[in-house]
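Hi P.,

Sorry for the delay on this. The queue was packed all week, but I finally got your sequence through. Input first:
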Amino acid sequence: MVILAIVLNVLVSFPKCLFQEWPLQPNRPLHGVAFAAEPANKYVETILQSFLPRELLSANLLPARLPEFTVVLGASKDHKEVIKVNFTFGNVTGLDRIKRKGDCSGPKSYKREISINCTLSLFPLQSAHRTIVRNSTYTNVGKVQAALTEVLVDLQIVGKAQGSDVLVRKFDVGRMDTLTPVFSNIPAYLRGDLPYLQNAYKKHVLNNLYGILSQKYADALGRTLAGIHMPRSILPRL
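Then the structure:
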């Protein structure tokens, strides 16, 4: 009878223990977090490294073309006439240099969907244009280049519960900036206008690159994901 009482006591208390342990307390360490992130990490890395570059190439993003533009400089003490500086043959290189920054979260299930969230890093990127300086007497051809600082992207991928019909739900491009643009073969009489030209160039590059990443690049990633199943949602091991 004593043994039977002990067994009954264990059976009664065992489910109670389970309910006390779940849901987990926020401050409890999840020893399985690294394990849980691994399928998401591997999935995203495979997409970025093995499949995305071909789609970027197909979308003419390796390199990505930047539009031409012109800066008009009014007469000054250094040059007595209006000068036009044309920026042509522009591009940005390095858009295939994308990787995850830290661990991804997921896959998580919610309302018959599974999702993966990641922060992505694009670095290093480089922009370049040919410059043509024209005045009434001659034309000067040069070049300008600028290195971009690291670009971070907040990515969310979602799919159906079985992992199919994968799409990009969020592709938020973070703050972008460049280092000081470097002009080569610029006429000496334009040295005083150099800060103005550098600012105009930075603005042109950043505005256009933001549009490229938010639209063409995000679309290319979406096409890459189509047909590639996501890993199923899993619970962390405790």
